[in-house]
Design goal:
The chain is of the alpha+beta class. Among the domains are: about 100 residues, no CATH class; about 80 residues. Helix content is about 40%, strand content about 15%. It has eight helices and eight strands; from the N terminus they run H-H-E-E-E-H-H-H-H-E-E-E-H-E-E-H. The strands form three sheets. A three-stranded antiparallel beta sheet has the order 1-2-3, with helices on one face. Strands 4-5-6 form a three-stranded antiparallel beta sheet, with no helix packed on it. A two-stranded antiparallel ribbon has the order 7-8. About 25% of the residues are buried. The structure holds zinc ion (ZN). The site of zinc ion has 9 residues, from loops.
Length: about 280
Amino acid sequence: MNELDPKTQAMLLKIRKGATAAIDHNKLLKVVFPALSGWKLEMIDKNRATLKFSITAPNGKTQLFKRQPSSWSAGSGVPARDKTAMGDWETFRWMKDQGLVADVNAALGMEEHVPASRRSKDGTGTCPVCFRNIKLVERIHSAGLVMVNHGYTQGPNHGYHKGDDCAASRRFRPYELSSEGTEWAAEAMKGTVENLKDRVSTLKDLLAKGGTINVYDKRAPNQIRARKVEEYDVRAAEQDVKVAQDQLNFYIKMVADWKLRDLPKENEPFAAFVKD
Ligand SMILES: [Zn+2]
């Protein structure tokens, strides 16, 4: 096997372990694809702003990638998402579904990675905000076990920015022991829903009046320009409301369902999701 250059090797090791929140089309094109065998890439549009390519996995399945605005920023005037193609993290998730990680292990010449969380759930709990299994740490000056620092991995769809620290980090006890964090998250999400609804009203008014909004100029980063409000601005903002409302409903349900539960044990599902 050819030795991989250090940058490629580091990237593949991250993919192998699933620590790949920041992987994007640039890394896929420049680092990941050249290292893989059996994956085919067809460039359709090389232009940076309208970049489009198709990926064919070794199993023969094909998926179209297109540069997409994030759903979070869509309300601020970036064109609505193109549903026929995938953006960065969806493309990466799709590739994983087609066996990317096994192919990465093959490229590295390594066996399947066994994540720590599968080895043991000792000392972990369910985060009351992002609802992932997270290590616990004893909070200083108090008797409580709280979540260690951790980020969101779901992307912007739950109303949080991927890469930010989860609000429960070193602050809230796990969902099994307390509903406090989830109650906090529900309150915060209520505010988000209200703000997003206000944004829909504002955009509808502007649309009716032929008003403008400020958007980032794609050709000149950090430059702001005004442009007319379009119908798709309203639709994108309405979609943001729907996504945030779904997440709020989930939090409300989890608060209503709360009772004291055991912390997760090895080979058991998260305690919070055990039906009884
Ligand atoms: Zn969390």
